[in-house]
Amino acid sequence: MDGVAKVASAFRMSDEAWRRHANPWSVWTRFAAIPLMLLAIWSRQWIGWWCLAGVAAVAVWLWLNPHVFPPVSVPRSWAAKGIYGERMWLEDRGAVSPDHRAVLRLLVCTGLAGFALVAYGLVALEVWPTVFGATLVVFGQLWRIDRLGLLYEERSRGVTG
């Protein structure tokens, strides 16, 4: 089981949870959690260890998020198609075309670089690495969802790699 599959398992991603996570509200509120998590961690400067309450609140929300919104049975929105594509990718990576795999690998690198900058920025309390890193993370995630949405559309039409 690879890292992404382990994360999906930790979030208890059943068929129903995947359909609920495909709800655009689920996708966009997860993106909204990014600046909230950054603020919660940064707040250690002002409130000390109490910042962990904010970190815990965001972490609980991220765990609950894929389970609380109404399910999407037929993906029509960009976000829903991306989540359905993500599930396809997790279930059968061998069926993913080489061009999708290459871009997805690039996006993993982009996300890791962004995460490293965020981590440095939060430890050092430096604004620019934090903001630039978060921008890279969000950019990478948006592009990843877009690519996975294309994968969903291709596989739904019967186009293979």
From TrEMBL:
**Record carries keyword Transmembrane:** yes
Q: Which InterPro entries match?
A: DUF6653
Which Pfam families does the record associate with it? DUF6653
The alphabetized UniProt keywords are: Membrane, Transmembrane, Transmembrane helix
Q: Which residues cross the membrane?
A: 47-64, 102-121
User: What's the name of the protein?
Assistant: Transmembrane protein
From the broadest rank down, the organism's phylogenetic lineage runs: Bacteria, Bacillati, Actinomycetota, Actinomycetes, Streptosporangiales
